[in-house]
Amino acid sequence: FAGADTLATAYALSMGIRKIGAYDLIICGKQATDGDTAQVGPSLAEKLGIPHATYVRKITGIGDGRIQCQRLTDDGYDDIELTLPALITVVKEINEPRLPSLKGMMRAKKAEVAVWTADDVGADKAQCGLQGSPTQVIQTFVPVHDVQSEMFEGTPEEQARKLTDRLLSMHFMKAGE
């Protein structure tokens, strides 16, 4: 599955989940640290044909085939409800992880983790990994933000006129607005 973009990753995960069988809730992180796209969770839900919600900060209730949760927005949060089975992507505020006990760490160290291949989950190899990825990352970088500021001198009226002229020249507004 190496080299997979978000589409191929969602496909591979959907095939693995189908192999597992029945489920009520799939919980994904908000985004991966490598691609930072936040697309795998919603794409996975679409491949499985189930409802989904992103940026969930709190589960407020679950039962009777439904889940209620709070989804972060730019202005706070929305209270939403989904029919199960469903998928949610969560933000770090959802939980404060507890430290594992020594006994739990030892048990985890001895646990066998199943590793499945495309054949194991019945996946079309042409849709997996780099071969199944319509996009390929050529380069990743942190964008440089060139911030400039300008101070306007004069009376408040003169400053307002200069600001208006600057916004007009930059096409951020039109004359008469």
Q: What can you see in these coordinates?
A:
The chain is α/β, with parallel strands linked by helices. It has helices spanning 6-20, 40-48, 102-110, 118-121, 156-169; strands at residues 25-29, 52-63, 66-73, 76-83, 86-90. The protein has two domains: 6-127, Rossmann fold; 147-177. Helix 1 (6-20) crosses helix 2 (40-48). It is elongated, with a radius of gyration of 24 Å.
By CATH, the superfamily of the largest domain comes out as: HUPs
Query: Strand fraction band?
Result: 15-25%
* Structural class computed from helices and strand pairing: alpha/beta
Compute the number of strand runs. 5
SSE pattern, N- to C-terminal: HEHEEEEHHH
Identify the quaternary structure here: single chain
The rounded distance between the terminal residues' Cα atoms is 54 Å
Measured on Cα atoms, how large is the radius of gyration? Answer: 24 Å
Task: Enumerate the strands of the largest sheet in spatial order, edge to edge or round the barrel.
Answer: 1-5-2-3-4
Principal-axis shape: elongated
Tally of individual helices: 5
Report the CATH architecture of the largest domain: 3-Layer(aba) Sandwich
Mean pLDDT: 90
CATH topology of the largest domain: Rossmann fold
Q: Main sheet?
A: 5 strands, mixed
Poorly predicted ranges (pLDDT <50, ≥5 residues)?
none
